[in-house]
Amino acid sequence: MKKSDFLSQLVSLAKRRGFIFPACDIYGGLSSIWDYGPLGANLKKNIKDLWWKSYVESRDDIVGLDAAVIMSPPVFMASGHLEGFNDVLVDCPACQRRFKLEELKKKGEVSLCPECGSEINLEKNMPRSFNLMLKTFLGVVENKQQEAYLRPETAQGIFVNFLNVLNTTHKSLPFGIAQIGKSFRNEVTTKTFIFRMREFEQMEIEYFVRPQHSDKYYHYWVEERFRWYQEKLGIRKENLRLRQHTKEELAHYAKACTDIEYRYPFSTTSEGWKELEGIANRTDYDLRRHSEYSHKDLSCFLPQEDKRIIPYVIEPSGGVDRTVLAVLSDAYAEEEVRGKKRVVLRLHKNVAPYKIAVFPLLKNNPGLVAKAKKIFELLKNKYVCVYDDTASIGRLYRRRDEIGTPFCITVDVESLSDDKVTVRDRDTMKQERIGCSQLIEYFAGKFQV
Ligand code: GAP
Q1: Which of 19, 203, 322, 356 could tie 14 with a disulfide, CB 3.0–4.6 Å?
Q2: Residue nearest to atom 20 of ligand 1 (CA)
């Protein structure tokens, strides 16, 4: 399938089945802002829950945080975002569309406008700096004193709470603070579905360590996060790779950074490899800067050494939406079954929005409906299940394949006499008869982690 076709198939499925809709759809959408529908909300929640369970609930060296999205300007003066969080842009003199200098430069000093094809002279058409921060005003008056910013990364909420968390949890190094939440950037390049959004979600850990241990923990987190995508979300290894940043690429605050890249099947650049998550050694830059600007002591006491230090921080920073996109891309398959096209999302059982669907073969048969509903009631407290009788069985199977439901249960006339139902496996399409009293045990085996 052509790369452009893949993306349009995925966008179409996402909308048709209720994963992802353009925001404010009935008013024509809002550029680079997307809403998650019923299935997308479940899928996204499953990803976030797995991350939270892996790093906050299953470990005693990391605590969670949920800081505010709106933050005051001094935070971003200290972090450097107000000064340095810019894209340099060039206007096309013919169509007035705006492009990133970085992208046009790859094509030489004189470039052709990607939109209208006119010549853009990069010397003459003055590049301009454009800050990516989204600003708002608090209160009724829109003046400088009321300015506030929507955070461009969840990380800053963690740094400004470092002291509060330290004082309330009494953690000692090494320890981490984890947060999942929305971030906002007024992005310039905007055409890649949920890959680059203006409102998006991040899953970030700031892991505080002694400076001399920072290399060790940096490598630990690169390996840990690389494995997590495969083991917990079932993303195929051949579609993941690690890419270390060159010195020139490193952010001003970072000593080292490795990206976990996913081979997005729709991307036309660098064979599709694009950043899914970055793991950076941010040194003591952030705590030192916030200490300077806030005049608060953000150091930690080391009892054995009897001294205070500002810790280094290792930051695994992943995008929830980019993970959703990688999971969907990895799972999407088209195949031919008995001369017909079957679209199937082979989602890992951990992330599938619904785990089991229950159907009566005939919706006009009260006995079958009652038995199917009883099975739904039996399973719904253990698994996210759905009862559905809105179409014929063939159509219901096709729908469920398209949204990645791992198992379907069909109750037929025979079920009333033998107390057995048909369980169909999404991936193999194999069907087996299972006794109703065996269902709990049967699915416990199937969903074992
Ligand atoms: N705190 C570090 C930080 O924010 P980043 O590389 O700018 O680093 C981290 O962002 C992750 O957040 C990226 O790897 C990506 O998954 C996600 N991300 C960043 N900008 C995004 C955008 N505009 N839309 C969707 N996800 C984005």
Answers
A1: 19
A2: 196
Token pair of 408 as six digits: 């379907």
State the Cα–Cα distance between residues 190 and 30, nearest whole angstrom: 11
Helix, strand, coil tally for the chain in percent (to 5): 35, 30, 35
Q: Which band of pLDDT confidence, cut at 50, 70 and 90, is reported for residue 269?
A: low
- Residue 135: partners with Cβ closer than 8 Å, 6 or more residues away: 147, 148, 149, 150
Start-end of CATH 3.30.930.10 domains in the chain: 3-84+149-329
Closest protein CA for atom 2 of ligand 1: 317
Domain 354-446: which CATH number of 3.40.50.800, 3.20.20.370, 3.30.1370.10, 3.40.50.1760:
3.40.50.800
Note whether 9 and 17 are within 8 A (CB). Answer: no
Find all residues with CB under 8 Å of 429, minimum gap 6, and list them.
337
Q: pLDDT confidence of 345, banded at 50, 70, 90? A: very high
Distance 82 CA to ligand 1 centre (A): 17
Query: What does 304-349 look like in DSSP terms, one character per residue?
Result: TTTEEEPPEEEEEEEEHHHHHHHHHHHHEEEEEETTEEEEEE---T
pLDDT (average), residues 51-56: 98
The radius of gyration computed from the CA coordinates of the chain, to the nearest angstrom, equals 25
Cα 145 from Cα 343, distance rounded (Å): 54
CATH number among 3.90.226.10, 3.40.1080.10, 3.30.930.10, 3.40.50.12780, domain 3-84+149-329: 3.30.930.10
Report the alpha-carbon distance of residue 421 to residue 359 in Å, rounded.
Answer: 10
Q: What are the tokens at 401? A: 């394949």
Mean pLDDT of 269-289: 93
For the Cβ of 197 lying below 6 angstroms from any atom of ligand 1, the answer is yes
The two most distant CA atoms of the chain are separated, in Å, by 83
Which DSSP state fits 222? H
Rounded to an integer, what distance in angstroms lies between the CA atom of residue 137 and that of residue 320?
28
- Nearby residues of 219 by Cβ (< 8 Å), 6 or more positions away: none
C-beta 282 within 6 A of ligand 1: no
Ligand 1 neighbour 205 (Cβ under 6 A): no
Rounded Cα–Cα distance for residues 313 and 175 (Å) = 10
- Residue with token string 């976990």: 260
* 286 in contact with ligand 1, CB cutoff 6 A: no
pLDDT tens column, 174-225: 999 999 999 999 988 777 899 999 999 999 999 999 999 999 999 999 999 9
